[in-house]
Fold:
Amino acid sequence: MLGEDRRNKILQRVSQLLAEVDPEVHLHEVVLDSTRQQLAFMLQKGEWPVVIGMNWLDYVSHRDEELKERLAQSLQARLEAARLRQAREEEEE
Amino acid sequence: MLPRLKRVLLGSPLRSAELHEQRLTKAAALTVFASDNLSSTAYATEEILLVLMVAGSLMLPNVVPIAGAITILLIIVVLSYGQLIRTYPHGGGGYTVAKENLGVGAGLVAAAALMLDYILTVAVSVAAGIAAMTSAFPVLLPYRTWLCAAAIALMMTANLRGVRESARVFAPFVYTFVVCAFALIFTGVYRHFVEGLQPKMAYIPPEQPDYSTLFLLLSGFAAGCTALTGVEAISNGVQAFRKPVVRNAQITLYVMAAILGCMFLGVSYLSQLYGVLPFKDGHETVVSQIAGHVFGKDVAGLGFFYYLTQLSTMFILILAANTCFAGFPRLASVLAEDRFAPRQLANLGDRLVFSNGIVLLGGLSLALIVGFGGRVHALIPLYAIGVFLAFTLSQSGLVVHWMKTRERGRGWRLALNLLGALTTGVVMLVIVYVKFLHGAWVVVIAVPLLMYLFWKTRRHYFLVTKQLSLADFDRPHVARHTVIVPVAPTPNRVVLTAIEYATSISKDVIAVTVNTDARSRKEIQENWKRFVEDVPLVILDSPYRSVVQPLLRFIGEIEDLRHDDKVSVILPEFVPARWWHNLFHNQTSLVLKGALLFRPNIVVTSVPHHLRE
Structure:
């Protein structure tokens, strides 16, 4: 689990970048897995929770611009997946 | 509470070792397996007379020759079934014989026809019995459907208590009916020939002057063949008999046929002797007219037997359904063992009977009665077709069997079964021809439909077996294991118990909560960290106050995060001290559990916390 300071720093950095990508997206939490290699950003846009995974080394090695681009790509992919899932849910209903 | 009620109604569970003790003596088996067959005495003669009436009273004396022909048919069928019992002592009747000798398709036709007939028999006989009651007490007429339901429930309960119990409950009614019927026949003959009791003759002109005599006789014969329904029940339930099962089952079959033959011929003869005419509106049955004429209706004298006959007739008509409660579950269990019916139908219940089959039969026949509002006379034309179809297929199966074997005496056995197959086959065609427009066409639709369901069930089991098979199976490798624990925003004992359990099975645990009332996220996080330091909490916002949907979507996101990850959802649940306390709580865990059941890659575990007060 991330230490409090590191957690807050990550939240602060990623929140700022995400605000530039999509102001409607809120970052709720960041979790580091037990192997200490994978980060997971827990976001939410409207009603939709979105989880974006990222390698820890990528996170620390990327500059802000690169990280923003990476986040934007991942977010778009996840929102597209969410849109498809919603369409499927509505179809099932 | 429910287990106590079940024990009171059905009795204590029986050990599997007691199965043999539950088997029936010949006398008890007669009441279980023969009530359907014997009850036909109450209406078979009347069915023939109603057909012959079209030609007026001049044709009515043909009732005795027709009854004689049906009795000869009965002898042929019973002797053939005696062979069937000897050859197939494990039961299954027409289905097993047809399947093994003519192929699975023929077996399923026989099974479908028999099952249909069992369901119809319960519905029709119960409705007919209750109709007899409502005729005597018209005030009960508005409660007809409820009375039918009560009669079915009574029979279900008696049969669920065990086969011996049902025999014990119903035996007095069956034997009273048999005694009354023979008393009627002997008294009727005695009073006519010794005391000179005269018939109540009346001339009736033909309704249709241009009737065809042959068609009329055939129609009368087809109508009277309802007397043979229920003959096959013993062959389906051979294993319900005490040892030696074959000998006991055969003797019971022959005794049943002898009683039926005598009663049927006797009642038909009396109807001719006393010139009894059937009423088309059915306000008084032929048996009632004969009994009223022979015994009189003075309760102080012989008239007592009139009322006893009527009462026992009413009960035997209802109890005809009891044979089906013995036959249907056994047939269904054989089908289930072959995977053509749900496996539960092959399970022996607490009382060593096929409880699920009994309940299924009760439910289906009740649905039929409710669907027809207790008026099921429209179903009567469907009667007998299924049985004769099964007769024909099983006898044909035995013919093939004897052709394959080299057993001693196979020549005369083959001839007997060939005669049985031919006669029952011809009779079936006659019944279909005569009754087709009166509803027999329904059987033509229902039998293939049931067969389709059998095949679909079999295919389902095949696919399940294939998918669970270890052939070509690579043991799955779980690289990682992420555990999600949906929790309430405020930690409590239930939540902490679940978190403890989750951390014991994985190092990657994520707690998630839904903030429906816009509480401060900071406050929730701080409160969480006071109790749980090592598990992150994700707080999801829910602008529309939905709890389940955001949780399901979050779980889906975690599931998509890594492909080598196994996701478990641990559901903290508290179990109230009283069942009705559940009414005071949201059942979020239950709803989540139900929704996650259909997610193929997610493991769901409940961590219950039992409340004491």
